[in-house]
Specification:
The structure is a homodimer. By secondary structure, the first copy, chain A, is an alpha/beta fold. Chain A has helices at 3-12, 15-29, 66-70, 125-147; strands spanning 33-39, 45-51, 57-62, 84-89, 103-107, 112-116. The longest helix of chain A is centred in the C-terminal third of the chain and has 23 residues, at 125-147.
Chain lengths: 153, 153
């Protein structure tokens, strides 16, 4: 892909997906392994789940705009599914509407920066085990599907 | 990709990779999530590691030929890294040279069949936890690399 192809692809992405790309890159560089759009057993879907080498679990909710933030008031529900919870927003997002407690990431389509660290809680062992297994199986299935899409042949 | 493209791609693959493709498809259909070429902490690399929804870990070693089997005598080393261990071989492989204990899979490039179930051992919890985390992080990193290869842009 040349630079124009990449620009066109980025332009066609939803704003939240562009930010997820930047967050995924930045968290990868910080040693996290990231998986996008992970469905929890509650049926809710987190934007990014990330695992570090110690097995800690971070969840990142991406809010591309104030409207996006206001349409989803249930961020506290994610706290019991991670050790670290972050919001990720674009630079021009009005940050003063965000709650003070979670971590904060400023992102664009290319990268992201952790502006405020998340307070660390500690998952119950059984929950951590179940989430790690869900991450592993989902990532493995998606990777195999990407490598061998089984086009009927 | 049309049928000819797929045939050409398959012809260019190493024999072991063609069999891995068939094994990956068959295990996926049996409810396993598969990851190819996973490096253990010993530095040894297993051909396929698979996770089922209970968190059981299977390892599959692919032997595409007798020479391939004879060049690697250390299959017992894998037993402490899985609950279930299988050899996977092509249909024309001389099966009587294989040890009786492990599970046996017959594979081709399109699919595979479990001919003999593997005896089940049970990993120590700390080992299972470490292997599941390794699977999760490796699969997540490879998937993100596939989705966003970061071509310098």
């Amino acid at each position: 892909m040349n630079e124009n192809d990449v620009d066109n692809k980025l332009a066609a992405m939803a704003p939240g997906h562009r930010l997820a790309r930047g967050v995924g890159r930045a968290l990868t560089d910080l040693g996290w392994s990231c998986l996008f759009e992970v469905v929890l057993k509650t049926g809710r879907r987190v934007d990014i789940m990330a695992l570090d080498e110690k097995g800690r679990i971070a969840v990142v909710e991406i809010k591309s705009s104030l409207a996006d933030f206001r349409s989803d008031g249930k961020w506290q529900e994610y706290l019991e599914f991670c050790d670290l919870f972050f919001f990720a927003v674009p630079e021009d997002f009005p940050r003063d509407v965000l709650p003070d407690e979670p971590g904060l990431i400023i992102a664009d389509r290319y990268t992201a920066a952790v502006i405020r660290e998340a307070p660390e809680t500690s998952l119950a062992p059984a929950r951590r085990k179940a989430l790690t297994l869900r991450f592993a199986r989902t990532a493995g299935q998606r990777l195999l599907q990407a490598l061998d899409p089984r086009g009927g042949i």
